[in-house]
Amino acid sequence: MALADIFPRTEGSAAARPTLTRTYGELPTVQGEGMVALRAWVDEIAALTRPARIHWVDGSRAENDMLLREMVDEGKLIKLNPEWRPGSYLARSHPSDVARTEARTFIASEREEDAGPTNNWAAPEEIRATITPLFAGSMKGRTMYVVPFSMGPVGGPLSHIGVQVTDSAYAVTSIGIMTRVGTDVLREIAGGAHWVKTVHSVGAPLQPGQADVAWPCNDEKYIVHFPDTLEVWSYGSGYGGNAILAKKCFALRIASVIGRDEGWLAEHMLLIRVIDPAGRAYHIAAAFPSACGKTNLAMLRPTIPGWRVETLGDDIAWLRPGEDGRLWAINPEAGFFGVAPGTGQSTNVTAVETLWGNTIFTNVALRPDGDVWWEGLTDEPPAQLTDWEGKPWTPDSGRPAAHPNSRFTVAAAQCPQIADDWDAPQGVPIDAILFGGRRATNVPLVVEATDWTHGVFMGSNISSEKTAAQEGTVGELRRDPFAMLPFCGYNMADYFGHWLKVGQQLRFDRAPRVFQVNWFRKGTDGRFLWPGFGDNSRVIDWIIRRIEGEVGAVESPIGRLPHSADLDLDGIEVSQADLDELFAVDAQLWLREADLTEEFYRTFDGRVPAPLWAELAALRYRLQRA
């Protein structure tokens, strides 16, 4: 379908092409039928948005350096002291543009029930009529960048391609870190590879002679996903989560739809390789909601002698059944877009070491020596800083120096424990899948699912407790099934069913084992019962020994629990009383939780697959007999 059919032309946009004052760089010389379609699409986007210039991004180092220099000259970036942070920059966003705009994020499927109750749904024709006038002329006075990118190694069997047009150089440089950008991608398109269309505008057109601002954006914001045509349109925000459309928008919301149709999974998961003292390697994928230790596990440094962890990915994994009956996974991203606060020497030294240079920081604080700082980077804050809004700051200021959602964008290859083959096109075979949330009560430190269906049941019920629950009250749960609640591009009940179908494509003896973990259980006195961080490797050790059949398990109503004697606790102090509490299963509390699960399932109007209802009934039966 042509863009003109999707977005009817508005008054004043009758010309087939905008009038361009100049074109940066060279037009791509790649030839092929796919390029004809791409050029036509770019021309139509330009006719709608009417930029002053078009720049086809080639992904070169020289181009990236040019864009960074231009943003520094325009006051949009601050170059950090190269002595402390070479090749690195600080961006300060507008205070109204600091996070994902989930309330303004829509799934525009033809049928509302296909979006489901956990998504904001919009009728495609109605939302197009709403955003068309916003995009009309939205890039006036600006450069429209055309960014061809690959999620996963270019040409890889598990990879997919997209093209983003944007009027934000900040977005271009960030996409260059987070994906594979360049002419190789155009060759794939020219050869007939399918590509996802993504359009982004900060929504701040410039009139002739009008001065730009450091962070252009618009108070009106939209992110609209069209799963039936595989498109994303984002308007009004320059923040990374809303502007790097390759990330959550494509790699999860749109890719989850592609995965549903093609028989694979696009997941909000980290990937790691765990190597035991004997040199045996195992691959683990793990899904955790925000603030549940995901990045720390992705960059885990085990406290058990002889164990090593290699990082494969920290945020997104694409998992596909292989011909060998195993589940294979890649990290489709090329970089890390991480939350800075809480990342420090005592919590995640690997992440800190990754940020030695070549990093774009957003909304962190600036030190007088030209380096950056955020809460949690060091135990003691500097005596004075410039905060994320450019205001003077001291420890007595009574406000955070860095925004709580401040970010770093850095290449994955800089991680000191990145696996040598982290970007292997074929991916890695998955041995175990972990699901986790932040639960102060009820959920044990680790529990093993009895089979794949039980594991899907676990994943569908992942949740974190709100403040009241952290004080010991069960009931106030923030649901985040599979850690995908904000990111699933279609009805989550159908998504649960898709997980069950994927399991049917795996050999029963080669499918990943599924576990639920909880690093955050508290005692009745409010203490954390488990030390966490590097000591979480002790749970991983037990999981791997379960996979190898080296240790047994205790059957419980909710799944298989460790014998406490099988946990390697050498070097840490966890009392037997704390261990008993870490693995306690209170039947009455779990029956109440089963009621909450039923309540949650019923929000999907009968679409939750029958096997999950059967799992819920079986759980209740076991609890009532406990």
Automatic annotation (TrEMBL):
Pfam families: PEPCK_GTP, PEPCK_N. Its cofactor is Mn(2+). InterPro entries: PEP_carboxykin_GTP_CS, PEP_carboxykinase_C, PEP_carboxykinase_GTP, PEP_carboxykinase_GTP_C, PEP_carboxykinase_GTP_N, PEP_carboxykinase_N. PROSITE patterns: PEPCK_GTP. Its main location: cytoplasm. GTP binds at A291, C292, G293, K294, T295, N296, R407, R438, F533, G534, D535, N536. Residues 41-260 form the Phosphoenolpyruvate carboxykinase GTP-utilising N-terminal domain. SUPFAM superfamilies: PEP carboxykinase N-terminal domain, PEP carboxykinase-like. Pathway: Carbohydrate biosynthesis; gluconeogenesis. This is Phosphoenolpyruvate carboxykinase [GTP]. It comes from Microbacterium trichothecenolyticum (Aureobacterium trichothecenolyticum).
